[in-house]
User: What shape does this take?
Amino acid sequence: MNRRTSKILMVGGIFIAAAAVITIAVVLITNSALSKAQYNDNRINSSSSILNQNNDSFHQDIQSQEDIITSVLPANTELEEITIKSSMLTKGNLILIDKDCKVPEEYADADYPSIYVKGSSYVVRSTEMYLQQEALDKLQEMTDAAASDGIEGMLIVDGYRTQEKQQRLFDEGIEDLVDQGMSEEEATEKTAQRVAKAGYSEHQIGLALDFDLHKINYDDFADTDFAKWLDKNSWKYGYILSYPKKAEDMGVMYEPWHFRYVGEGHAKYIHDNGMMLNEYIEMLHEKGNIIIQDEDGNNKWYVQYIKAEEKGDTKAYIPKGSEYTVSGDNMGGYILTAVLE
Ligand SMILES: [Zn+2]
Assistant: This one.
């Protein structure tokens, strides 16, 4: 007997326990129909009639989220309410950083672990390079897999940058060009095509890194076996190529060496659909939610965009009991990811 069947038996069988049922905190939706109308009929005829009398606002919440959630999740999905703290707005793996989305202040001088880890399959240009822990763990897995596929000489040349370091890189870029005889204005414009202004680089949130290979120039990186391997496999470890060729249409340089950690399911979707992170987030804003399948075609991740309440915490729903994570999108919303069983 599964959890749901036993719950129904419990509700149906014990009239005297009605008072106790009212107090059940977890949301239970018995959606056994496909259309909204059928769903509503079903709901009224089933166990929620007791809830109806007691918690109208609760039902309005369900109404507003029901369209979204039942559009992609199977019938009979039980939901559980969660609370998202507003502090999450600037945290998580899906924080968008681009020329319009600034790095949140808390990242300016963060304390992340060193990319230099003994026994790694890669070497580092400096021991003073850093990455967020989850991204670092996945980097180890990814490069171990690349090594066992025969990739040699993997090198990491940059990771997390403080606000100060990003500023320094930008200033140095301008200086170099001025030294070559360019005007200050022209040098600034040229540098901005190659280096993000301080406060607008993905490197500043500790989720991005630059690869290279021994004795290979950045310019030749795209043609290496390592670059080809990454292109084919990085999504399995939650990494995406931030600036593919199409980035050039948006005035950003193609960077075959620059990878960004976003998490496993998201990386798969972004890779499969040839997207960039900003396009993925825009798509989530538009669609509201999606299901992402794993490699074998099984529904694995439920992903939902939730606009943040203007003040305080925001309520959302997940499939009951599922493991989930929440990330801000750096645009006033959250992206909820629940792992489906
Ligand atoms: Zn980079």
Summary: Residues 1-63 have pLDDT under 50 and may be disordered.
